[in-house]
Amino acid sequence: MIVTIDGVAASGKSSVASGVASALSIPYVSSGLLYRAATLLALEAGTSLSDAPALLSLLGAAPLRLEPLAGGNRIYLDTPDCPRELTADAHTSAVDAGVSALAQLPQLREWVNARLRALTPPFVAEGRDMGTAVFPQARAKFFLVASPRVRALRRVKERVGDVEAVEQALIARDEQDQLQSHPAADAQIIDTSDLDLAGVIAAVMAGVQERA
After folding, report:
1. Is it true that the peptide bond before 136 is cis, omega within 30 degrees of 0?
2. Where does the record place the Cytidylate kinase domain (predicted)?
């Protein structure tokens, strides 16, 4: 079984995927963490986020390992001389601001997608194009949406920030991500604006049972 959960930025994909995976007793896979780790390494190395060949060269020398778990994903830089966990550092405002530019590069999307396709099911996969480009064969597909203001309020609860500024950044991110932020034709769209986490998980689980 593969369950895909796509959606716009800060729509709750990771939390929902974790809850659904726990309910199904299978891992969940965070594609966004690979993009975030790649962005973090590029920022630290001073590599342009629009230079696909340079980014691929950097990533070729920096072995990233994604560890999918039901309770959360972790990502590691497995260099022999200095192994390092990147999970926390990949969730910063600087990475937030740069990850969309990197994720728009077809070569980088394929780099991420190839690593996701190599994983062995069952799992819940969350990201931007899970149900379209990566796992079109998935039986249960979902796409999460919410208003920019609701998403901004949620993100500010997770990290310190100004709601207005975060909302404007999310609106700009939505415009940048339009190529990836569209649901698969057979995906169930869930508006999470007026739902709590348990409500969204329940809606997804109902959809999974219908498609089982």
Report:
1. no
2. 3-209
Q: Any known ligand binding at 57?
A: no
141 known ligand binder: no
Alpha-carbon distance of 12 to 198, in angstroms, equals 11
What angle separates helix 93-103 from helix 163-176, to the nearest 10 degrees? 10
Q: Is 12 annotated as a binding residue?
A: yes
Does residue 197 carry a pLDDT above 70? Answer: yes
Q: Which residues of 66-97 are buried (b: 16+ CB within 10 A; e: fewer)?
A: bebebebbbbbbeeeeeeeebbebbeeeebbe
Domains recognised in the chain with CATH numbers: 2-211 (3.40.50.300)
- The two tokens of residue 92 are 């910063």
Has 7 been labeled as part of a binding site? yes
pTM score, two decimals? 0.80
